[in-house]
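Reviewers of the previous submission asked for a worked example of the structure-prediction workflow described in the proposal, so we include one complete record here. The input consisted solely of the amino acid sequence. No template or homolog information was supplied to the procedure at any stage.
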Amino acid sequence: MKRRTFVKAAAAGVASAAAASSFPAPALSQGKQRWKMALAWPANTPGLGLSAQRVAKRIEMFTEGRIKIKVYGAGELVPAFESFNACSAGDVEMYQAAEYYWQGHHKAFNFFTTVPFGLTGSEHYAWINFGGGQELWDELSAGFNLKGFANSWTGVQMGGWYRKEINTLDDLKGLKFRMPGIGGEVLRRMGVAVVNLPGAEVFPALQAGTIDGTEWVGPWLDLNFGFYKVAKYFYTAGFHEPGTVGSFGINKKVWDGLTDTDRELITAVIQAEGQYQTSEFRGRDLAALEKLVSEHGVQVRSFSNEMYREFGRLSGEVVREMAAENPMTTRVYESYAGFRKGAIALSKIQEGKYLRARELPFKWS
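From that input alone, the workflow returned the following structure tokens.
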């Protein structure tokens, strides 16, 4: 089908759908929709907030103005962690966040962002697209009048910023540390006073001494947030978020009221942005890590094997307990855990084997 014919047909479909629909409505005018998107972080956050702005711009472009989205950073329209409720109720049409922020609504949401010692980002995407993950996510989100989309992978996250070296399990006890999700519960069981703060509040809390340390994402975003100004020990690798996948959510009644064409366009835009942003994180992390070390005196440290074993033991304990809470979480866990088992077997003979071989001492460049 020629593009002009395709677009005209799509526009006609949107107009008729808008006239007939009874969903809690975005502003409608002559077949055009005006949406609001609420973010869980500031709108100018590198990587995350700018990604939302690109998505909004491209949706408007590819729908030829039929859907125009205004992006609101955390606190501009609703608080960071209220974007879920606002989108569910139809007060906004769309959000950008990380699904584990919604674990207070249902623990199964954790699996659609990441869980400790779980899938890597590429494995997570494979589970979502080919392992039944998206179908489970759709079922879970529908109960809250939402439709969720995977957005990007931020890389294996770092272990966090600390004011002092962490050499033993005892060094963690009594620390006040910011970590959301299941990883935070693991640390709590290790004697850490865990807090969950939205992104905009993390640096002020660290600077004021309200918290002793924090994890955020990785070198690029952490450099931009300025954590190195307060804490000089940067630990790797984080056990808690091996494959953190961000998300977009759309009010389900709004989503269902769109034409097939516009649903396909929006899905394609989000998928393309996910690929772009994933590569952006990888590329920018390389330069940011070098800058943190060479210009800001950051010391990169690794947790001991003893600590990783305890992180792993408690992670499994927390995940299994969570999985048993209700039938839906059990189903998601069983799907995720089954895929994880196969992914481990495959990575041993693919990525894992290759990465070990690449570290061998031979001249290449």
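The chain has 13 helices and twelve strands. We consider this example representative of the routine output the project will generate in years two and three.
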